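Hey everyone, long-time lurker, first post.

I ran two proteins through the pipeline my lab uses and got sequence/structure pairs for each. Pasting them in order. The first:
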Amino acid sequence: MNDLVLLHAFPLDARMWDVPDAFTPSLRGSGEPDLGAVATRVLAELDARGLDQVLLGGCSMGGYVAMALLRRAPERVKGLVFVDTKHTADAPEAVETRLAMAERVEREGVGEWLPDALLPNLLGPNASDTARALVRTMILEQQAEDVAWWQRAMAKRPDSTDVLEKLDVPSLVLVGEHDKLTPPDVAAKLAVTLRHATSERVEDSGHLLPVEQPEEFRARLERWREQVGL
């Protein structure tokens, strides 16, 4: 059974991954907003699939959930793939922005305003029409309560430096050259925090590298897996 687990970005779903045989669970929230609760559900799904130890990857919010999982069960992870994500908590202004969007989506629902607001920061300037259409479709098909829940959960996530510094597993850190939300300098800081990290910048890509350049993402992932024996 394949042991690669990939966690999706906000506000998307498993369709963002074009990686055969990977387990790509949908991250849904319920109860008090807390990414730790999502991580606990992911662990339960791993148990149900008989996956004792996995290569765990996450893009953006998926990376935050991966870090929450590491707080709970680091022994379940034999390698990490962080894509366009960061390990630090949000600054106060970012928290305010998230909470404001949560309130708006609860008032107005998910409509064209949401992808219009998010797409300029999610995709690079040269993203294909296919990538733009896929991201827009995924955003429009999310439930308003999920979008609001994710934003509130991300707003309260802790800094994960202490968790990552303790890890002794190989890690791959990928970032798009044109990522506006977690730019290359942020990815570099994440890589330094990890003990055994390979850090790579992917040219001509934005914040959703696996959507914009799926073939390049798969190629870099497979090359790294061969190098580290995973």
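...and the second, right after it:
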Amino acid sequence: MNDEISPRAWAPDWVPESGFRLRLAGVHFDAVRIQGQLGEDIAKQLSRLTDHDPGPIVYELNGFRWMYFLLPPGAARERSWPSYAQRYSSRTRSAAAYVGVPALYGATWPLAWRSLPTPDAPHVDPELLEKAIGMTP
């Protein structure tokens, strides 16, 4: 008998089975979006701060190469972020904001996981994200 846990057994229900799906920010998660190398540098700092389990971080593989840090619902609007960090929440815009979420495995281009959600880190900790932003030059 195989006692391994299937990836779907622990994946949040907002992670699609295949490809990628747009999810409404503020429902399952809020997001903070940071562009390019700066987003990558912050993701590295966050990974160091969390013993390499920072929670879900999605990145775009083309264009501006945005990095999306997925926070608990409501967390993005509770904080003041630097001007280069765009927040996506149910109450941050006059219109609905959607964030692309890739499947855990398979073809998900143009999105990919920089860091997967885990049972211990189903969301990025907003306090640690603020700390990582402050540590990044």
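Reply from user beta_strand_b:
Welcome! Quick read of the second one: The beta strands are 20-24, 30-34, 57-60, 67-71, 86-88, 98-102, 111-115. The chain is about 20% helix and 25% strand.
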